[in-house]
Amino acid sequence: MAILAQYRLALIAAGVAALMALSAAGAWTWQANAYGKQLAVQSGLHSDTLAEIARASSRMLQAQQEKRQALETQLSALDGQHYQELTHAQQTTDRLAADLAAARQRLSVRTTGNANSNGVPAGAGAASVDDGAERADIHPEDARAIAAITGDADRCAVKLTALQGWVKEVAKGGG
């Protein structure tokens, strides 16, 4: 009987061990299901967050693209306007140069002094609309050079104005 008691004790120990193993397996399965549900909820929240971030990013990108398109339209309009101004300045300079070359127009400067063209002092004459200064014509070659220089200055002024306008629009559009 002592042997039977030993087997009985071993059988009870084996049964307790089996119950403990089954309990552990059940707890493990239950806990895995609970964690699985939590992970599924977290995964869903994460997916929702990523989707919202993607939508917000898309809206921001669309707004930036619209802003850029508006700026490009404004800059294009400014470029057209300044191109017309530059063309007008060039045409005015070309017209003046042609008039000077054809002697339809002459450039002159005021002189101070009371000498006529022969170097003889001029007598007191009648008052005129001018301030009393005499005028001397500029040689046609020099007149054309002056016209070219002033034409270049006019074109540079138009280009500078265009560049300043462009910078203002870009700074305003980027802010």
Shape: rod-shaped
Reading the helices and strands in chain order gives HEEH
Question: Low-confidence stretches at least 5 residues in length (pLDDT < 50)?
Answer: none
Helix content: over 70%
Structural class: mainly alpha
Distance between the termini: 97 Å
The counted number of beta strands is 2
How much of the polypeptide forms β-strand, as a percent range? Answer: under 5%
Spatial strand arrangement across the major sheet: 1-2
* Number of helical segments with 4 or more residues: 2
Q: Cα-atom Rg, whole angstroms?
A: 48 Å
Overview of the molecule:
This protein is mainly alpha-helical and 175 residues long. It has a domain at 75-110 and 133-175. 77% of the residues lie in helices and 5% in strands. It is built from two helices and two strands; from the N terminus they run αββα. The protein has helices at residues 2-101, 140-174; strands at residues 108-111, 134-137. The protein has a two-stranded antiparallel ribbon. Helix 1 runs antiparallel to helix 2. The radius of gyration is 48 Å and the shape is rod-shaped. The protein starts with a helix and ends with a helix.
In short:
With 175 residues, this protein is mainly alpha-helical.
